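Notes to self after the Tuesday call (sharing in case useful).
The group wants a holo model before anyone commits to mutagenesis around the pocket. I volunteered. Ligand is calcium ion. Logging inputs and output together so the record is complete.
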Amino acid sequence: MLLRLHFFRIRVLGLLIATLSISLSQLIGTESREFPNIVVIVADDLGYEDLGVHGSAEVETPHLDSMAENGVLCTNAYVTSPVCSPSRAGLLTGRYQNRFGFEFLVNETSLVREGATNGLPASETTFAARLQELGYRTGCIGKWHLGTEEESWPTNCGFDEFYGTLRQGNYFSPILVDSRIDLKPRKVSDPDYYLTDDYSLRAVEFVEEHQAKPFFLYLPHFAVHKPHDATAKYLDRFEAINDPTRHRYVAMLSAMDDALGSLLSSLRECGLEEDTLIFFLSDNGGTMGSSNAPLRGKKGGTWEGGIRTPFLVQWKGVLPAGMKYDGLLSALDIAPTALAVAGQKVDPGWEWDGVNLLPYLSGEKKGSPHEVLYWRFGTQWAIRKGAWKLLQAREEKGGNIQIAREGPVRLFHLEEDVGEENDLSSSRPEKVRELQEAWDRWNALLPEPSWKPVL
Ligand SMILES: [Ca+2]
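Result:
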C-alpha cells in the first residue's frame, strides 16, 4: 500500500486530502486506473551501440530515444543468457533459467534428457500467468522461441492471446499463429507483407481492444534478427550506408523503432500514457550488421557484448524523466516489478531471482538492485559482483556458439574497463578466488541442462 501511495501520490494527493473517508482504490479509480498496464518490448539481437541515445552516429531511433527522454535509461543492465531462448525464459519467469534446466536454444534436434520438456516446462509459472490470475488481459505478439511442445505454448504459459511465430521466422512470408482464430500455424502469402509492420499494427489493435481494463502486452519483435530483410520504405532512409548487411540491419531497426512510435501514439491517444509501465530491452547482444561498441564480444558469448543490454523504462508521471540509472540490474527484475505495480507481493516460495526496480528508479532506494549476477551457458560462464567481472568466455573465433571452446578465466574491472581489454587475473588473484568461489556456490545448486545441442 505504501508503495502504491508513493506512485500515485502526486496525482491523487489533492483528492486524498479532500475525501479521506473514501478508499485509495476508489480514489485512484477516479483519477487513473488502479493497476497500470505493463508493456515489455524485446528486440532480437540488437547491438548495444545501435540506439541514438547510446551515441550511435549511424542509426536513427527517435522513438527509443523518446523513451529515454520521458523515462529512465539504465546503463548497467543485463540479460541472463547470450542467446534467444534461455534469455526469454529468464525474463518471463523471473528466475535464472538454469535453475529449471533451460540453458540452451530450443531446437527440435537437441538431445533431451528423459522425462524433460524441450522448452518451458509446465512446472514454471511465468509472470504473465500471475498477472492473468490478477485479472490482467495478457497478450504475446512476436517471436516465442520457448518451445513447440503443447505445454510450452504461450497460450498455456499465461497469455490469453498469441499472435506470432513459435520458432524463428522470416519477414516476408512467416508461419504465424493467431490464437484469436485458432492455434493452427499459417503461412502468410501477401506480396506487400512485412512482419515488423504487422506486429506493430497488431500491438496497436491490442491496446485499443483492451484499453478498458489492465493489460500486459509482451512484444518480442523478431527484428533485428537475421535474415536481414527490410522494405524499400526503411532501406531508403539509410542509403548512405555502404555495407549491405549493415544497411539492411539499420533499416530493420528503423522499422522496429517506428513500431514503437505507433504503440506510444496509440497509448497517448487512448489516454493511457500515464497508466502504462513500459520496458524495452534486447534478448542478447548484436551479431552480423550490428555494433556492440564499446563492448567486447557479441551474441553467443559471456563477454559484455553478449549479455549487457540497452534497457529503457518509461512510466510517465511516476518515474523520473530523462534520468540515467547505473545500478546493476537484470531482465530478471521485470517480473517482480510488474507484479508490484499489479499490487501483488512476490511469494518467497516462487524462488524468484529478480528485484522490484521501482523504488530504485524512483529514487526511493539508493544503491544497486543486485550485488551479484551470474551466468552459465554451456562451457561459458560469468559472474559480476560490483564493478568486477570474472568470466570464461568463448574465444572470438571458432566453435558452435553453444558448445564453444573454452578460453582462459579472466578478470576485469568494468567501471575502468567496460571493453574488457585489461585482464587483471594475474595481479588480483584474491579477487579471482573470491568471485570463482561465489560462482561455484551458485553453480553447485543448478541441475544439468534439460537438453543439449547436437554438434
Ligand atoms: Ca536473440
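Two things stood out.
Residues 1-31 have pLDDT under 50 and may be disordered.
The radius of gyration is 21 Å.
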